[in-house]
Amino acid sequence: MHGVGGTTAQEMLGDPRVQLITGDDTAACYRRTDDADAEERPADHQGEPVREAYCWSNLTSGNGARALWLILLPFMVANLAHWMRPAAPADHPAQRIYDLLVRLLALTLTVLLAAAACEVALDLTAWQCAGTTVCVAGKSWLGWLDPGNAGWWSTPGRRLALASLVPLLVIGFLSWLSHRTWSAYESASPPPREPGSSRFTPHEERTALSLEGFWYGRRLVARLRAAHTTAGVLTIAAVLLAAGAKADGHTGGDTVLAVTGRALAALVILLAAATLVIVWRTARSEAAPDDQTDRPVVRALPYAAVGVLALIAVHSGWARPGARSHGPLPGAAAFGGIAVFQGVLVLALAVTACVLQRAARNDPRTALRGMGGPAVALLACAVGGVLSGGVAQRFADWMDGGATPGQAHAPIPGPPVLLSWQASVIPALLLVVAVVVLLAAIRVVIVRRRVEKDVPGLYDPREHPDARRTKRIAGTIARAGLTDASPVLVAAIAAVTLVLGAGAVAGAWLTDRAPGRATAGAAPVVHAAAETAESLGSWLMSAGVILLIAMGRRAYRDHSARRTIGILWDVGTFWPRAAHPFAPPCYAERAVPDLTWRMATWTERFDGRLVLSGHSQGSVLAAAAVWQLDLVTRSRVALLTYGSPLERLYGRWFPAFFGPPALTGLHREMDDWRNLWRFTDPIGGPIRLTCEDGRRIDEGPLRDPLAFGRTLRNPLPAQILGHGDYQADPVFDAVRAELIARLAPGVPPQPGPADVASADRPGQGSSGRSSA
């Protein structure tokens, strides 16, 4: 099992001639051509392991278009918050409250996305710019909407009805993309298992990852997709209704239009209530695969919302003599309402997480003492706000030419004032991040100096010490240790984001359209600083959006960049879409069933034994697949992990699923488990468990580099391997041979390349399955 970044089957197996055994172009198992029919020729393979490689990198970074999934970053981060809950008992009543709060928070992100699309298409374009002759001048693509031409589309209501197609297409595209990936990823069903396969594991050591329905979320994603699509469409409908109500108020109102508007508003409220009920009742069912079909009312809800939107568009486009667009579009305060509601949900989530943490067994290594979920949820809201505000600010700057939106001489009022306040606090947030980074750099220097004196003692005293070599090794160890300090960075950013976000909302409510008016009576320096912060923050918000788009475009053309972006998704999209259906799909819902089916069917057919080897993220997939095996198959499998983030990252940030009790239960029902790690590895680390017979699972820390200085055997300086090339260490072959011998006594250890290669870069190999 390779890790992040992926590699080819040829490099994994160390042979240019490989043959596909099972799978497809997306994910498959391969063998060397000489070993393809090993089971049919047992005499030719007597006493030696048969190597097999599972390639899964195309699940995350195989298609260049997937780089555009960077735009879905807030949804992915919100989905992670669902899985970061503390390790309280599964039947604790606060568990359901926690899950519900995360689902509601995810729903607000969809509403925020739809509102941002409406801000750009309806407010800035159709209402403000198209309704102002000065703004329309020089824009031929808007000339036919100029109210001075008295054309059919020049009335405000018809302009808005036409512009509503843009946010509708955005929501429709996300819904289509979710359905497409839902069919491709969530469709891999787990193999059948006998009930009670974990009967020998104590209740407190069981984890949800061992449940049969954990990696089968088709129905849940479908229900959430219907609810979020409906919420996005209803957001567009609400904007059109608000504009129509304002127009009716300015023209004296029309009885028929007013009554019709209230009836349509009632329909929107009714559909919104139905959407909330679906989100409320859509909780994960993991005990068994949920393959039931949703009720017709759930599947029809998005279509009903589109139908109501069509009626509202007709109502909005109805002729209203004397109607004109002036000022910003009604509903600008909705952005403040969304921000406040998100803040309330995050605080409620923090309280719930605190309750769950008190009910859980106290693990001092749990990230942020169980507050990782609320902190990450707050960051998801912040990223969503930056993306929506950045798009609106950048588009407004482009529409008004050389003027500044919202100023007295500007042709259009610009986006809501809250977005300007949010832009103003971004420089302060980046300053805090810079301070944290500076403190991290100082920590690296201090740790490096402390470690320098211990490095020569790790090697043969006959090797002459080299000050520069020692400093380089010590620096690598110090930088690798920064991973353990990541909770401090997340906590600092989350705390500052909460304070500055609350200040931005309060400032937006207390000031007029331009934030500069809040400091009009202050000293010139203060006034200039406020304007500078707003201008700089606006550009930074816009730059963030442009950077994401540029990265996606570069990844489409550059394979190496596509692999880099794929590494980001390898960590973020391991978990199923339990909170937000528009998040990037979970590749593990395809990879884990693949591995489980392969191991279960092979051991049953040939009564074989397996050494399942995984590097980096591949070790997480390997552990998840072993959890899914029935008890008999699991007892025939040994696990070899190296460069593994199972405890260092997943155990700390996802304690309910990878905490010490869960990892202890995993080892209890396996034949054996060994883990290799290094001090220089920034990702992998020890498992920190002891076997029941007193042996430790961890083997390490391994020496890195293998040789300190130049010797007759190593005339050139040995490379510092860090996170890669674990199979280059002699300990790797020794541990692999020990596992093979433990599975099948009498089979001599086999020299040669590893059983299944795994690498973050081409050329790495790793141990995989062995049969005897």
TrEMBL record:
Region annotated Disordered, chain positions: 744-772
Membrane-crossing residue ranges in chain numbering: 97-117, 160-177, 226-245, 257-280, 300-319, 331-356, 376-396, 425-446, 488-510, 536-556
InterPro entries: AB_hydrolase_fold
Keyword match Transcription: no
The entry's keywords: Membrane, Transmembrane, Transmembrane helix
Protein name (Swiss-Prot/TrEMBL): Integral membrane protein
Taxonomic lineage: Bacteria, Bacillati, Actinomycetota, Actinomycetes, Kitasatosporales
